[in-house]
């Protein structure tokens, strides 16, 4: 009997509902065509509209709700009329931390239909970025006092724990080990941040002893930005803190050609909780409702989701179809094409039909 996977669909804000709807069409078509598994998407209405109606971005039982699913497909969060720190902490960070989705994984490569803007990347880009996703500057520690006074003070405490560093470091070494180059760069800022970042370096050195076949090095985050531009071929897998990798992963997507095709996974490697898969691009309110949002990042995120739940062959077939469509020039305007979102969906579904 073929398995059925229960997926939470959380479209969210902006172009989120457009790209998630597009992806559901494609994944359901794939499951139907292959006939090896069934996929059941359940809509969850969390987001800014929900916030304006209820005063909160997610329901009180959001964690228990999500734990009923095998995985989640997320669109975007953020709206022009709600401060970003309210929307982000209200939805995404309210899920990532409590569910301990501590590994944020972002594959970045020169995708068919994108043009790498780097003349140094003669062979294109193929990187794997691993971001610690549960603490650092995003741990929620800190506060403000004397608000509105000239002497108002604000602190943002970066929290680093040995247990969290060790688990993300092991995950990063395992990821590097699974790739042909077996090479890992550990990004820190331990010359000036002499506590948390030095602990990162120390734990990396300790964990490396369990992976003698992985060549690794450490690099300061500022120097890493230069290396990404000047020597892209020298990079394979990168691991870093929540804040550093948040920034570097967007830079990486831009260097590869477009943030419009960049996927991400919020993983609980222990599999005690469902992992959440989302495009990197955000809510993009400048194009919301125009029908031209690029769904490829969400397609790729869904492919990563299929790998995670055990349907690796289906994921490979999905990516094969998406790449064929992009290589044929069926592209949205952000990649220089003239297709709309639904046009890309129909083209990918037509390729799936040929499988």
Automatic annotation (TrEMBL):
Belongs to the isocitrate and isopropylmalate dehydrogenases family. It comes from Penicillium steckii. One of its GO terms (molecular function) is NAD binding. It holds the Pfam family Iso_dh. SUPFAM superfamilies: Isocitrate/Isopropylmalate dehydrogenase-like. Residues 6-348 form the Isopropylmalate dehydrogenase-like domain. Transmembrane segments: none annotated. This is Isopropylmalate dehydrogenase-like domain-containing protein.
